[in-house]
Design goal:
Chain lengths: 555, 169
């Protein structure tokens, strides 16, 4: 009934405004489907095959805009969800629907929406299918700019948990918590006319988020209202940009922190300097007990209210991304430095076309944790947990990598990228395991592009990862042939030659056809079991063997 | 049943609107100084605009922007086109965008879309996704993914738009 009611409203808005404004409206949307077949393959660890033999994730967005009004729905059908995605999202229908009124300085949304305050330390509701996350807020949101340079935002709602089939009825399941948030941002230079054209620009922001969840725990008295606040500043002066955000959360015993009553906090600092041909960047982060969800008992990627951004380089080549870091919300302190420089054309290093070199270093440690007294173990359930010295770095190394990348165009036809990476990966901490060896690895890569002519290109990748730990060393070769603007053909083999138990080949071949905004991909191959991370959020990818079809389209 | 009926009606209305050209929806993005800017304020004095959604971690995106940068001066001289690059980098890599683009020496107009609001409003599924806007700000052509050489097709389209010719996609 509820569905029908909302649909009727959308229908009237859409058709009503359509009639009023003489065909000024716009209808647009997109479509995305992934279908995969599964075969049993014990060599790669795909020991079980889903009973359905074939699975599909599909989404389609339909949006209608007419002047200040926009409305839209998303159709979802995961029948059943692909392996590695939550099986709870097996509903069919329209879980996501919204209406927005947006005129001049005011914007009001009713329905499903996404929002982020600052860098997301206390609120980020978003959607990223690749890591199986959709924690949209279901409720009301309002944005208002009372004067130039001031932006106020308010949100009130419940979070999307799953879209599930419940006894044959597809239902949007929201979390038990009620989320209320407020954010204000002031552009100082816009407020004071005298400062408007100054070289230094200052932006200040502050936010407050509170969640309410009933306490039904038989053994503890849990706070039903948990508040969190954050303050931020951004200073920009010519080539230099500085930003800082600090967040603090009231005591919030959760499954993530083993139900301790300690307050949480997070600090994020970034400074960058850049001019033409040179970019440098330094960032530091400290996180202490800062997991924040609208359900204290939720786990994995469910009902996350915030995102604590990773401080390590986002790796994209296959072997470089084999051991990705994931933020440890219970405590970490880390920093990252990044420099990229372009040697000019016709200089000794630059050669005829110039050379880009970039260097990146990041390191993450534990935070200092001390017992609160002699009788309480660190992190003991139902206690204050531990105390931590803010300025002390813990002794345990979680992650470290050093990356060098050289990007060089050798001629009109030939472009080469060379990278080297030195990695330390604390397996137990990052994967939440015990007794596993930490991984130390060296990874080298050459990515060579050869332009046969203006439309035909061959690209090859040669990668190697050397390690004595975990599954041992890997090598990979990839070849891709592209014919602009429609076709791609690629094939690669990932070979675990250093594995003592079984030296396994993971071969994959794919064809892609693109026309305008439509993209069709057909592939066959073996997928390695591993972890895929985007931003600060990860998803387990199980081993699989099969055909896959992927179609995306937008209109 | 009623649900499907309504959707069908919506779709039909939608297809009717297909013939019309589409402008840019109003969403808030940030410029590289972190200042909030409305997308409807993006303009190029009646000349065409290339609107390119990208991210620092997206290799094909970086390839495409690099390929265009090699001929960007010529493109601008011939057609007056402006490239507006919208990065969907989130809080993790957002502060890296300014040093990254300066390190590359790119001379485009840059915006940040850290929670993908603009990306969603433009129905972009994956990056890179390139839109071509005519002098009135209407989307007249779009393309997703990047294969080496795609920039040639894009430039052909830019030239047509600059001359006021109609594009069929």
């Amino acid at each position: 009934m509820k569905h029908n009611f909302i649909f009727t409203i959308i229908f009237f808005v859409v058709t009503g405004t359509y009639a009023q404004t003489e065909n000024q409206g716009q209808f647009h949307g997109n479509f995305q489907t992934d279908i995969q077949t599964y075969y049993k393959d014990t060599t790669i660890g795909a020991n079980t095959v889903p009973a359905e033999k074939m699975l599909m994730n599909s989404y389609a967005n339909f949006n209608y805009t007419n002047g200040p009004i926009s409305a839209g729905v998303r159709f979802e059908a995961c029948l059943n969800p692909l392996e590695g995605f939550s099986k709870n999202n097996n509903g069919v229908g329209f879980p996501h629907k919204y209406i927005t009124y947006n005129k001049d300085d005011i914007e009001i949304t009713a329905g499903s929406f996404y929002e982020q305050f600052g860098s997301g330390l206390i609120l980020r509701s978003y959607e990223d299918k690749t890591v199986d996350i959709d924690n949209s807020l279901e409720g009301f949101s309002m944005k208002f700019s009372p004067v130039k340079g001031v932006l106020l935002k308010g949100v009130y709602g419940k979070q999307r948990s799953y879209f599930s089939d419940v006894n044959g009825n597809s239902q949007l399941i929201t979390g038990p918590g009620i989320v209320r948030g407020f954010d204000g941002e002031i552009n100082v230079n816009d407020i004071f006319p005298k400062l408007e054209n100054k070289r230094t620009q200052v932006i200040l922001g502050g936010s407050f988020v509170s969640k309410f969840q009933e306490d039904q725990n038989p053994s503890f008295v849990l706070p039903q209202n948990v508040g969190a606040w954050a303050g931020r500043i951004n200073i920009n002066s010519g080539k230099v940009n500085f930003s800082a955000e600090y967040a603090n959360k009231m005591n919030d015993p959760t499954a993530d922190n083993n139900y301790i009553y300690k307050n949480g906090e997070a600090l994020l600092l970034n400074i960058s300097y850049s001019k033409k041909g040179l970019g440098a960047y330094l960032s530091a982060k400290r996180v202490d007990n800062m997991s924040f969800r609208s359900n204290r008992d939720a786990t994995l990627n469910n009902l996350l209210l915030n995102v604590l951004p990773d401080i390590t380089k986002e790796q994209t080549y296959t072997l470089n991304a084999m051991y990705p870091y994931a933020t440890q919300p219970n405590g970490e302190v880390g920093f990252q430095a990044d420099v990229s420089y372009k040697f000019k054309k016709e200089s000794p290093v630059g050669g005829k076309y110039g050379t880009n070199i970039s260097l990146n270093f990041s390191r993450v440690n534990s935070i200092d944790k001390q017992a609160i007294n002699d009788t309480t173990a660190i992190g003991q359930k139902g206690t204050l947990g531990y105390s931590s010295d803010f300025f002390k770095i813990g002794n345990e190394l979680y992650y470290q990598d050093i990356n060098l990348e050289i990007n060089k165009k050798l001629s009109e036809k030939l472009v080469v990228v060379l990278t080297y990476m030195d990695l330390f990966y604390n397996f137990n901490i990052i994967r939440g395991m015990t007794g596993h060896e930490n991984v130390k690895a060296n990874i080298g890569l050459a990515d060579i592009t050869y332009h046969i002519n203006s439309k035909n290109t061959i690209r090859t990748e040669w990668q190697a990862l050397f390690t004595k730990q975990d599954q041992g060393s890997w090598a990979m070769g990839l070849a891709e042939y592209s014919i602009s603007p429609h076709w791609f053909f690629d094939a690669y083999d990932l070979y675990n030659y250093g594995n003592q138990d079984q030296k396994v080949h993971y071969f994959t071949a794919a064809t892609v056809y693109v026309r305008g905004t439509n993209r069709f991909q057909l592939s066959y191959g073996k997928q390695r079991a591993g972890i895929l991370c985007v931003g600060g959020v990860c998803r387990q990818v199980p081993a699989s063997n099969g055909f896959a079809i992927s179609v995306t389209s937008s209109f | 049943m009623r649900k499907y009926f309504i959707i069908t009606v919506m779709v039909l209305f939608g297809f009717e609107c297909f013939a019309q050209q589409k402008g840019i929806p109003m969403v808030e993005v940030k410029n590289l100084d972190n200042k909030t800017v409305k997308t409807t304020d993006i303009s190029n004095n009646g000349k065409p605009i290339i609107l390119d959604f990208w991210a620092t971690w997206c290799k094909p995106c970086v390839k495409e922007l690099t390929a265009i940068s090699e001929n960007y001066e010529t493109w601008q001289k011939e057609t007056g086109v402006k490239l507006v690059a919208v990065s969907i980098d989130d809080a993790r890599t957002m502060s890296k965008v300014a040093p990254f683009v300066n390190g590359k020496g790119w001379e485009y107009e840059f915006y940040l879309d850290p929670n993908s609001d603009f990306k969603r409003a433009m129905n972009v599924v994956n990056v890179p996704h390139t839109f071509l806007l005519d002098g009135k700000g209407n989307v007249v052509w779009q393309h997703t993914t990047y294969a080496d050489g795609d920039e040639n097709e894009l430039f052909e389209m830019v030239k047509k738009v600059a001359k006021g010719e109609e594009i069929k996609q």
